[in-house]
Specification:
about 220 residues, Alpha-Beta Plaits
Length: about 220
């Protein structure tokens, strides 16, 4: 049986005076090493927050979470720490509010996902139900909420993930063409329903972030 796709999702802040060097290092070294040298890293993208925190996010799509235990990936991490570049030494210790999660995809009908070139915006929904309502939460998300948002004009993809490492337990990622989609009546209408109102009352935590893609740059 084919293992579900994996996701490595990291968010962090960096002091303002280091942002330029941080972005250059992340694009040229940190992200590039993983995509070029670790088989199973299918894509890597970086984002800057329009809503929510931390300010920066990186999303790596994986063949499976097992990629993060592969010799190639572990070699990269070991090299970064045993023989760090000058840029790594200046930037990495200054990370703030680092949040790192490893996830398996639980989308009901997963596709052979490729990040859409026109996906300028990433909506990140982090909804965690109380344990006694988890089954109903997943039923609502899979049968009503995800299909409803997937049908909104401008929402290109809609995927769900469950954590195998880190928090929060559930994350949904949506590739979106423009921030204006969230202001449109279609989105505002389709995200609401009596069931959605009930589920929101049963959540243990709820967080929503909206990010704009900064790497690879949008053409």
């Amino acid at each position: 049986m084919t293992k579900p796709r994996g996701l490595l999702f990291a968010r962090m802040d960096i002091p303002a005076e280091l942002e330029g060097e941080f972005n250059d290092w992340y694009n040229r070294e940190h992200l590039a090493w993983r995509l070029e040298r670790a088989p199973g890293f299918l894509s890597g993208r970086r984002f800057r927050a329009l809503e929510g925190t931390p300010k920066y996010a990186a999303a790596y799509d994986l063949e499976s979470v097992d990629v993060l235990q592969s010799p190639a990936y572990l070699s990269i991490r070991q090299e970064e720490r045993a023989n760090p570049t000058p840029e790594f030494q200046r930037v990495y210790p200054r990370f703030q509010n680092l949040k790192r999660g490893v996830y398996e995809e639980i989308t009901p009908d997963p596709t052979d996902y490729r990040p859409p070139a026109e996906g300028r915006i990433l909506l990140v929904a982090m909804l965690v139900p109380r344990p006694e309502h988890e089954d109903e939460f997943n039923a609502w998300y899979n049968t009503e909420h995800l299909p409803a948002l997937r049908s909104v004009s401008g929402i290109l993809t809609a995927r769900r993930f469950r954590a195998v490492e880190g928090e929060p337990k559930y994350v949904a990622l949506y590739d979106v063409t423009s921030y204006d989609v969230f202001k449109g009546q279609e989105y505002l209408t389709k995200r609401e329903s009596p069931w959605a109102t009930r589920i929101r009352s049963l959540l243990a935590s709820r967080e929503r972030c909206v990010y704009e893609r900064i790497f690879p740059p949008v053409g």
